[in-house]
Design goal:
The protein has helices at about 25-45, 55-80, 80-85, 100-120, 125-150, 175-185, 195-200, 205-215, 220-245, 250-265, 280-305, and strands spanning about 5, 15, 20-25, 165, 215-220. With about 325 residues, the chain is mainly alpha-helical. It has two domains: about 20-155 and about 220-305, no CATH class; about 165-215, no CATH class. A three-stranded mixed sheet has the order 1-4-5. The chain has a two-stranded antiparallel sheet with strand order 2-3. Strand 2 (about 15) and strand 3 (about 20-25) form a beta hairpin. Helix 1 packs across helix 2 (about 55-80). The longest helix is centred in the middle third of the chain and has 26 residues, at about 125-150. The radius of gyration is 22 Å and the shape is elongated.
Length: about 325
């Protein structure tokens, strides 16, 4: 008996008016920032941060705008679509077309934090240690939004928890796509393009049944990465922050190294979205540099240790 896999039919919109509406992706960023502010404030109130609790919202908001969003967008353009970016630099501003890179967002936020610390004469390593504790929350929400959007899906598999993602049809050869569209158009003439097919899955059981027989079951790699880069990394860093006395910079080092290792693992489930580099996916290759950054933070913490007073139980 063949398994009946879930055919992804979630809408990217919470509320939609024509071609516009409130997207889950935007809400995921908002949720990440709000929860990040609340958690960072909790750390600040317990004495773990050089920032006062009333300064946290401004710091996180500015970091979100000038670090995560700008860094994530620029990172995607440079790491995954450089030819298009250099040919048409204005594509950077067409954010509604999609395209954010977590590596770019992390680097952008690191640069912003360094600037903020210098401007306000605060410890860069202390700001960073508290920021990396809450950052995985944003990664979690972002990966979950990737799943809702049906993007960045996984490799083909036959595990019982596999999902069939209609956006797979964008990978089809022209001949294969034409044959599929001939079948979908027979169901309804409106289903004559890939975008129309994807948009129509939720409302048409006949179309969903057709795609179930056509497209491949794949790992829901977005959820795998949400668990690894989000939940697992957050629990590790929160535990270390609140249970151990560590020199400033150690948590930053741990974040970069463990994030890189978990990303490399998660990419084993994910369909490569760029040409391989030495047998590694683009995400795995970029993660190698994250390990180097993490080692530099650990070296800095060892050479110039600064340990805050123990605030546990306060």
């Amino acid at each position: 008996m063949l398994l009946a896999y879930y055919v992804h039919d979630l809408s990217p919109f919470l509320v939609q008016f024509g071609g516009f509406g409130l997207r889950w992706y935007g809400l995921s960023y908002l949720a990440g920032f709000v929860v990040g502010i609340l958690l960072y404030r909790k750390l600040a109130r317990r004495g773990y941060s050089d920032l006062r609790p009333d300064q946290v919202a401004d710091f996180i908001t500015m970091g979100a705008l000038f670090g995560v969003l700008l860094g994530g967008r620029l990172g995607y353009m440079l790491f995954y679509d450089p030819e298009r970016f250099f040919h048409d630099p204005l594509v950077f501003f067409r954010v509604w077309e999609g395209g954010m890179a977590s590596h770019g967002g992390i680097i952008g936020l690191t640069i912003f934090t360094f600037w903020y610390a210098r401007r306000h004469r605060l410890s860069f390593r202390n700001l960073g240690d508290n920021l990396v504790v809450v950052a995985p929350v944003g990664l979690f929400f972002g990966r979950f939004a990737n799943f809702v959007n049906g993007e960045l899906y996984g490799r083909i598999t036959d595990v019982f928890w596999a999902v069939q993602f209609p956006k797979e049809i964008f990978l089809y050869t022209p001949d294969h796509l034409d044959r599929l569209l001939a079948k979908t158009s027979a169901i309804d003439p409106a289903f004559a393009s890939p975008d129309a097919v994807i948009a129509g899955v939720a409302a048409s059981p006949a179309l969903r049944d057709l795609l179930a027989a056509e497209i491949s079951p794949r790992y829901p790699s977005q959820l795998v990465e949400a668990g690894l880069e989000g939940a697992v990394l957050f629990m590790l860093l929160w535990t270390l922050r609140t249970r151990a006395r560590l020199a400033d910079g150690v948590l930053c080092g741990i974040f970069f190294i463990v994030y890189a290792l978990l990303r490399i693992l998660g990419e084993c489930f994910r369909e490569p979205d760029a040409p391989l580099t030495g047998g590694l996916t683009r995400g795995q290759f970029l993660s190698l540099f994250m390990v180097l950054i993490g080692l530099l933070f650990l070296l800095s913490a060892r050479l110039k240790p600064r340990v805050r007073p123990d605030k546990r139980g306060s």
